[in-house]
Amino acid sequence: MDRHRTSFFKKSTQKIAPDSTGLASVTTRPGVYLYCxxxxxxxxxxxxxxxxxxxxxxxxxxxxxxxxxxxxxxxxSSIQTIATDSEFDALxxxxxxxxxxxxxxNSIAKxxxxxxxxxxxxxxxxxxxxxxxxxxIDSWKSHPKRAIFGPFQxxxxxxxxxxxxxxxIPFCSQKQRNGNPCFxxxxxxxxxxxxxxxxxxxxxxxxxxxxRYKHNIRRVAxxxxxxxxxxxIELTHAMNxxxxxxAYEEAGEIKKQVxxxxxxxxxxxxxxxxxxxxxxxxxxxxxxxxxxxxxxSGAGMTLTxxxxxxxxxISTIQGSWSTGSLVVFTDGIPDTGQYRRFRIKLGGKPNxxxxxxxxxxxxxxxxxxxxxxxxxxxxxxxxxxGALNALSGFxxxxxxGLAKRFEExxxxxxxxxSPFFSTIRLETSRPALQILQHIRDEAHRFAKxxxxxxxxxx
Length: 458
Prior knowledge:
Elements: H1 8-11, E1 14-16, H2 20-24, E2 31-36, E3 42-48, H3 51-56, H4 67-72, E4 78-83, H5 87-101, H6 107-110, E5 116-120, E6 129-133, H7 134-137, E7 147-152, H8 155-165, H9 194-198, H10 204-224, H11 228-244, H12 248-265, H13 271-275, H14 281-298, E8 308-317, E9 320-330, E10 333-334, E11 340-343, H15 352-363, E12 374-378, H16 381-390, E13 399-403, E14 408-413, E15 420-424, H17 431-457
Helix pairs in contact: 10-11, 11-12, 14-17, 15-16
């Protein structure tokens, strides 16, 4: 079968015609779009933070298009779109599809000089992560063990990608290995440093550091191939193991890696998740919600629906410019038009519980806003109890907390004024935990964004 017409199209999430009716139905979420001709051949693959906005630009005010794009547009017979959970997902999926289909109008797929790839030299004792061109890759027939990711549109995109990844998985970018640790070692972005390892005498110490270094490189490869969930499971198991022997400082450092990974990837999936008909994105959200209902119902909570989930987060730095955020997920998907933000009015010494109580009280002072089917607060038992007190007149709204330290779900029961609490700790692979983390992280991002904007005005 022609590689440009595989069964992928039968499994894509959306196929529309390039007319006003079709364009109106395009998703506004992050994702990838593929332009196809009348034979089903892929002409162009692109990604966007908002697919609908990007695609519409090709079909309105055509006089503003480049010459190449003006040639492309009349050939487009159908458009395939694949929604993803994040812009980062879309970036990896775009590279995956360009490499698979080699579209005619993707210059990064056709120009020998332009395509830039990320490569990992697994054939070396201390593998390197390098940026390279397609012409160089073509000469690597003697290095079959090298892992290759891309192509990426520019060096800027590839470097930004690697810089983001190393905040959760430290690795080295130093070219020379002279025995001295590199600069990034001192700021925690290279640990352990291969330069230091290379000059160490043989022994148990060197073997342990070498093993750690190779683990990190393998994890980078998994993230770049769209399998960050495996990395997250490994890190979480390591975190729990250190906490189990009361090595809380080490557990806390691993937790920072997990948090950084979550912020970057927003629960990234292998690209096959988006192209495998057995597990399309629409099913992902449904699966997450169904699993969450199962978990909470099993803990004694009564839920009639999870159509609208709200989460509240507080952001404060050194006691100044404290802010609160309210994010809304509708049918398991971020509903950004309903996000709200609050500047904390509570005076005196910062008080997490007091600030959470203030935001909840102000939020439910808006009778015109729909009530949620579930309210999530970022925090543990104190924050949940504060939320219960603030919602004394809304006893029919289920409330849970998500404690960051070990991602524990805090569930209250009994008298709201003197509740009992049960704690649930799920495997990181559970869809229920994934959606809770997604919502919590989105609330954190939104609160921090508002907090930053206020400080910039001071």
